[in-house]
Amino acid sequence: MIARPLLPDRRTLIAGGAGLALAGCDRVIQYPAARDILFKGEDMHRALQRALTDRDALVPEFAPAQMSPIFRTNGTRDPGTPDYAALRAGRFADWRLAVDGLVARPLSLSLADLGRFAQRAQITRHDCVEGWSAIGKWQGPRLGDVLKAAGLRDAARYVVFRCADLYGGAPYYESIDLIDAFHPQTILAWAMNDRFLDVGHGAPCRLRVERHLGYKHAKYLMRITAVPTLAGIGKGRGGYWEDNVDYDWYAGI
């Protein structure tokens, strides 16, 4: 067994070194010193993780009795746009998730369509970059099954997620590689704690990529695009926070 490098994790740094009570992931951008503490010096840590850990390994799953009584929201709490408000008013009956890019069969999926895939339910821990964690139950189809249905092309290397919430007037975006996309615990969750997702937690559908910190779990999904490279996606680092606040693209835990 290889010992894990003795490096502080983000939660320890926030709680002890930074000492900041942050209300949301977007608050980190206001504190450059805290941002430096959180992310500088982690390149070696992440490189070691990728080299020494099995990225196919499952994260721990928990019993129902271990679920958190309160599960905070992270990031956007309501997209607040007219388009999203209209979808919400119609209980998301008109919502569609586009799956496109390097696929043989582009898809346009309703909530009912997502429900026709084999479903996975999992009780896992969400670790937020703010320093808090919570355990909740998520349900939805495996992302890998959806990508297989679309016929992923050989040139695809990453999948990019675009969302209904806007940052700087443009849709929020994130990305993962195919190792994480086909991980069995990476799902498109439409249910949380045995109920349809509420708005604060990403209704009608969000990504759960359980091997990563919370900011990778894109909410309010609208489009999934298979691409050969992250060049041309935002500023080229693969996600909004990666491009604008120097977050790590690989946020594995």
Automatic annotation (TrEMBL):
Superkingdom of source: Bacteria
Annotated ranges, domain Oxidoreductase molybdopterin-binding: 93-227
SUPFAM superfamilies: Oxidoreductase molybdopterin-binding domain
Gene3D superfamilies found in the cross-reference section: Oxidoreductase, molybdopterin-binding domain
Native species: Sphingomonas corticis
Protein name according to UniProt: Molybdopterin-dependent oxidoreductase
